[in-house]
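Mods, move this if it's the wrong board.
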Amino acid sequence: MAFNKDLNENSVLYRLYPLLSEINGSLNDYICKCYTYLAKYISTHIWQNQSFQLSIITDSIDGDNHLQGITNFGDNIDDEWLIVYLLYRLSRLDPNLVIKVEDSDGEFLLIEAANDLPKWCEPSNCLNRVFIYRQSVHIIPINCKSFANRIPSIKDSIEYIRRNPDKTRAQEAIQRNILRRIECFPKRIKEYQHKSHCFVPIGVAALLKHNPGLISWAVNAFYNRTPDDHKVCQAMKYFPPENRVMCCVTFTRCLYGQLMSQSYTPDVRVGWNLPQNNSRDFKSHDLGVKIASGFEILISSSKFSFDGNDDQLDFKTDSRWLAFNKSLVKNGYFGNERNGSKNYNELLKRSQIYFQEFIYNNQNIDELDCFETKGEKIYKLLQTLEIDEKIFGKESQNLEKEDSDEWLNIDCDELDALLAEKFCSTNKSNNCSEISTQIPSTLQAFVSNQKSGLKGAEAPKSLKTSKIDFNEDTFNDALSTVLSLKIPQLETDSSSGMSDYSEGEDSIDSEDDCYENDFSKPELNGAKEKLKEMKDYMKAMDQQLAGTSVGRSFERRSNDQNSDEYKRVDIDLNALTNILESYSAECGVPGPATALFSTMGVRLPDNKDTDQL
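Not the wrong board. C-alpha cells:
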C-alpha cells in the first residue's frame, strides 16, 4: 500500500488505543501491565536493532491519549512479525483495545494478504481503515455510510469498529494470511536462535554473560563499520586480545548470518594470531575478533565522559520491582522452575535487565539507537561487572554444544520449494501432461482474463494453483523446437492472427460470427457484403506478406489443408517458441519469461540440456 514517509526504512509503527473509561489506573499502569504480560516473549528474544517498547502520547491530533511505539527491525523481518504477534496477544488481553500498525511500506498487513483483498482496497482509500481488534484484522468498508466521501479520522474509525465488529472484520482469507505469518511464534524465538563457540576477550565474555542481547549491538556496529572504525580496531584499547576465553554466544540466525558474511582480516600488529583458514578453530577465533571489534567500535564512538557514579537499582527493596516480579509469577513467567534453580535464576536475571531498561529507566528508544549512547551504556556496565578469570576459565571447559550452521547452505531445490510454498499451491495438477500444450493454453487464459486492466495484469485464480507435471522428454522436445531441430505436431487447429487468445476460432471470423445475427436482416445485406470484402482483402494481404522476411519468421501449420504456397500462422507454436527462447536466453537469471511464468503459476526447471541440443 502507500509508503509512510514519516517512518525510517525498515521501521514499524504501532499505536494502541485502549478504552480509557475502562482502564483501572493510569496509562503508566496500563503499560506496566502490558510489559508484564509480554515479558516471557520479549525478555528472551534478541532484537535486531530495537525492541518492542511503548510510550504515552498526550498531544495527539487524534484526540484521546494513547500508546505508541516505533521499532527499527533492520534486516530481520521476523522482528516485525513478532511485534504483530505481540499486538495480537495484547488485543486478547484487553478486548476493548484497538491497534493500528504500519511500516515504512504502509499497510503491510494488507500487502501480506494482497491476493485476497477486496477490489476497492487501494492505497488512496485505505487510510485509517485498517486495524487489529480482538485478534483479528478489521477493515472499514469503502461503502460505509458513516464516512461517505471522506477519509475517516482515527477516533471515528475506532468508535465504528467497537460498535460494528461484525461488519468490519476482514474475510477469512485475509485472516489466514496474517495468522500464517505469526503462528510460528513464540516457538520461532527459540528455534531461530543460534549458539556458537567464540574466542573473545574476557571483557566481552562478561558483557554477554550479563546480557546476551548486547550481541546485536556489537554485530550491527561491526556490520556497519566505516573506514574510521578500522583505525579504532587497530588499537583495541578496551578489549585487547591478550586475555581471551572461549564462550558460547547466542545469536539470532540473522545476526549470525551477517557476521559470517563479513570477510575481515585484522591488523597483524594487534596480536589476534588467527589460526589457518582450514583449521577447525578458525571460525571461533574469527567470530571472536568480529564481536570484540564491534564492542570496541561502540565504546570508541561514545563522546560522553564516564564518571562511574550512576545510581544502581536495589532489587531487594525497590517496590516497583517487587510488584513487577509478583506479576511475573502470577502470569506464569517462571513456569515450573523452582526458586533458586539454574533456569530460574537465568529467567530472573533476564527479567531484572528487562525491568531496568524498559520500566525503571524508561529509556527513549530513539536515543538508545545511536552508537554514542550504546557505547556509554556498555562502558558503564563494563566498569560495574566483576570479572573473575578463574570462573570464566572453568566455564570454558564445560560449554553448551554449538548448533550446526548447515541452514546457511541452501540448494536450488530447497529454494524452489520455499518459493513454491510462498507463491504456489502445493497440489499438483495432472490435467496437462505435455508442456507444448500447457504453456499455450495457460497463455490464452492469462491474456483473455477479464479482470486485468490498466492497473495491471492479473492471473486467473485457477492458474495460480496450477502446476506443470513436468516430463523431461516433452521439455526436450519443446527446446528442440526452439532450436529449429523439429516442429512438434500440435493438436490445436488455430488460425491466422491472435485468434486463439479470443473467444472465437479466428479474430476476423469471430467478428464475422458476432455480426451474422445482426446482418440477417435484409436491410443490412449491404454492410455484410462490405465486411466479406474486407475479410477477403485481409486474407490476400496475409498471403502477400507470407513471402517476405517478416512472414517467413513465423512458424506455420504443417498440416494445413491450404495450398503449398500459403500456410496459416500457428499461434500456439509461435507463442511457445518465443517464450521458451526468452526463457532459455535468461540462463537461469530472473527475466521477463520467468516473471510471466511466475504470475501465471507455471514453474519450469533449470535448462540444463541446452548445450546438448
